[in-house]
Input
Amino acid sequence: MTLLSPRRLSVLALLALSLVPLSASAWWNPDFKQRTKITLNTSAAGVELREAITGAAVPVRLHSGNFDFLAAKPDGADLRFIAGDDKTPLRFWIERFDGTNELAVVWVQVPTVAPGSDRNVIYAYAGNEKAVAEAPASPFDTSTTAFHFAEKDGKAADASGTLVANGAMTPELNGLIGPSARIGATPLEWPASPRLKAAPGGPYAVSLWARPDGTSGTLLTQGALSLQLDGGKPTLRIGSLVVTGGDLPVNAWAQLAATLQAGKATLYVNGRQAAQADLPVAAPAVEGPLRVGGGGFNGLIDELQISTAAPGADAIRFAHAAQGADAKLIAAVTQTRESAEGGSGGGEAGYIGILVKNLTLDAKAVIALLGVMFVVAVWVMASKTLLVLRIDRGNHGFLKRFRASVDVLGAESAPQHPHSSLARLYAAGVRELVKREVGKRQAALSGASLDAVKAAVDADLVRETHRLNAQMVLLTIAISGGPFLGLLGTVVGVMITFAAIAAAGDVNVNAIAPGIAAALLATVAGLVVAIPALFGYNYLASRIKNISADMQIFVDEFVTRVAEAYGAP
Output
């Protein structure tokens, strides 16, 4: 028996672990019809981390680009989150679920996020009509108190609903992560709580997102600690210590975080360390009421989190990447159970399915109208092609008979050529000659009579030309109108996609691409209508032009032979 070295054993173990996400192809529960695969990319292509993070609360933004709201319940009652093993249920809390506008924000507790990996996977399941809503479960650990500002009653409370602010909150529905709080002259204040209290020197951490209207003001105070904005510079004050660094832009969302631990006070701006200083030996404790605003700050505040177990730099950077709108970290792809069992769902059929699923209502209406135009255009082209073929064949047969007859009146054979336009013109001319008893008494026709006969035949020629060109206008409408209708569907679809992305706060390519690709399907549909109609129109116009020329030549030939045989000497 050959023993493997410890190094080889470790390599084999890593290889086996790397295959685990790929093997998680089983469907957690067959009653759920759709599954969204959510990947947290901590490699260099996403948001690179150096340390593993455990128990992270991640906001998952769902929209029409990565989730099928039509298949889910309107209130999200059938929503479930499962770990990467496709077996373990995860704790989650729904901050927002709008089935009408196809937007949702759900906070999910991810057990472990491995560093330097693009295989950190969780799954969102939905599409079960029998499912009932689960009781809300906080995705945050016991050391973290989070304020989302998503309350519908105007009272700002923490996620558990036990810490309620004094005074009413002014909500901003489309904030950074769902609703946000608008802060003005009246601050939001929560009473003192042991959950918000930290010993001198920490550990303690506070983080929030702000979109200031100006460059100065107090964002947050709690006892001896405050976060301020001085001339656009974020400032952390703890007792007599002042830590300043970074920039907080006006009218733009930015994350501001501060930690007290290991004898250091550290200030972070947008996930990166902006400044750090040593805490004084007599650093005060952080305790007392928590106040947001009230010191000249005006603007929006979102996602305030207080932690009595201060996170590390990687955890703060991870939180910024997960919560921010520029989310390279999170990517989501939706599968149905059939596509998952059948493979990856790739290929042209899979791509078309993704496009159709992400079509907006206006694009569907435009494509339906273009479908009607396409059917009408095909019908016109088919019927007109058969008509001109029959007329052309009948004209050749009749013209051969007409030119072979000695007497101009001896070629009367319209019943033998029912589809010949020349036969009908000939019949019209013969009728005019019969009215004048030509052929019976061998009456000679005057010049005026010949002109009258020619005028009568010319009138029938015009009617035949109208008959040939009837319904051709439908092809011109398809040629000129199809692309413009398709473009209209695309423009409106792109507008709706960007509006939905702006409201959801998720601007990664996985959020934008499906909606825009689906919107472009309307333009493709317009071209599919216009291109065949263009070729068909040109072909039919050419054939109709030739038949019209043959009719004009025949009229001249007929009148000439009549004048020769029956004209006045």
Remarks:
- The CA atoms of residues 5 and 487 lie 64 Å apart.
- Confidence is low (pLDDT under 50) at residues 1-24, 343-349.
- The longest strand covers residues 53-63.
